[in-house]
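[Q] Does anyone have a clean structure-token version of this?
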Amino acid sequence: MNNRLADRLATVMFWAGALLVLLILGFLLGYILIHGLKDISWHFLTSPPQNMLAGGGIGPQIFNSFYLLLLAMLITVPVGLLAGIYLAEYASQSRVTESIRLCIETLSSLPSIVVGLFGLLIFVNMTGWGYTLMSGALALAVINLPLMVRVSEEAIRSVPPELREASLALGAARWQTMWRVIIPSAFPGLLTGGIIAAGRVFGEAAALLYTSGMSSPPLNFADFNPFSHLSPLNPFRPAETLAVHIWKINSESLIPDVRRVADGSAAVLVLVVLIFNLSARWLGRVIHRRMTAA
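[A] Here you go.
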């Protein structure tokens, strides 16, 4: 076999692998959307599940999913970014650094159900919070921190060293170089890591079963007091996310139209993740252009 034939065979294999992935993804998306779009309506998207027997919807679950996403990312992104900066720029090869990397790799291999049980013991029981959004956000932060740390470290390491040297040669301090030169240059990679972490927040259910709970109190969306038990902004209240809601109604089957609600909820979850990813990438490109003056 000559080199030209080997190159063509390799190209065909690469294209076949890419097309296979696209076909599988297209089949899954098509199946979910075809079965679920017909059940989506404004009433379904805004009404609470308490009226499910009368054709209720998933309004509180959608809000809980976004609110949990906000809380989890407020914890994950700063901690993961700072840890990635330390490992990429400041840490030297030592036993401490190797221990940190070993801990990160160990955390990344933990099943989400194990993290959920850990969250039940620490964030739910030992803190006395009970099943709350904050407990779920901390559990999701434990799941996403290894990913965010590794992505941040690799994105920062990928910045050409000439940029660092030029900034330092012009008299900038090391932290100024990091903030004004390295992070803007590494922003696309950091954004990708943030989007992947956010997608895991939307789709996670196992860890949230033991931390944020499988039910939500009746919410008063006119109450903006974060200390009120019925306020949607209260982070210390039980909350059922959309992914947990899908699992719950399919496992319990206590409602007559479980198939309709499950199909519609799954379609909404897929659309929300898709719209969020596209919006985040568009916003990331805009911010990157402004930060780099490109």
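[Q] Thanks! Anything notable?
[A] Residues 49 and 173 are 55 Å apart (CA to CA).
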